[in-house]
Amino acid sequence: MIAGKGAETGMKTQKIRSKDAAWQKLEVLKTNRNKRYRYFEFLVEGVRNLNEAEKNGWEFSSLLYPADTPLSDWARDFLRRVKTDVNLELTPALMKELSEKEDTSELMAVVKMRPDDPSVIRPKDGAAPLVALFDRPSNKGNLGTILRTLDALGADGLILTGHGVDLYDPEVVGATMGSFFRVPAVRIPRHEDLAAFFDGLRREWGEINIPGTTAHAEKPLWDCDLTRPTVFMIGCETDGLSEGLRPFCTEMVTIPMAESSSASSFNVACAATVMFYEAVRQRAAKNEAGKEG
Question: Is 187 helix (H, G, I), strand (E, B) or coil?
């Protein structure tokens, strides 16, 4: 069965039967941020994630599957058609230990990272850019959910600033349900590079709107013109937007809460959904008015 799978894919296959060096590399890709960037690879699990990675042209280093275990038609076909450097056959016990799922995945992958290139964040179909900047995210689920929101609402990309959870953490990737591989996301740690990104947008689009988000009673979201080129600056869950980023903002906006509410703000992922939905709503209304006019 093992030889047959290797022959079907035409790829080199390596058997992992113990916690040897090959296993240890997989383990650190799962758990160690610094090692991920040293290898420039990350671990991916889930049918939708794997399908979207392939569909969107990400490069695969390895596909992982359990030895002596019948695979589904989907998994066998995926192994046959996806090009890798080497496929890895693990014992079922090692696959189970590596998996984040209650029912162990039949197929996992090591995927190659992409460089942090802000030029990949491009507007679709000539529309005004709509981008998110997330400063120092502290929760993996929130970062994953925001990526999923950006995909669902057609935003053009995500910028990460400051030190926060790792973009390539398996929990972040898993929380996106495939959207990770569809939404361009880049890390821009230096303020000079962020300023250069904004300058590039201005050269191409003229004036741009950079609303910073706050829980305080500032300008209501619905009073902002989000039909213009817009980059939402979203602060971290605990401390909000860092002081170093506030000078970039053209205005500070808030999502008003009901007067009777004891809540002062939304969870950051919920807030991002509201903000981008409002931007999409305004743009759709403007397009519809243009057609009627």
Answer: strand
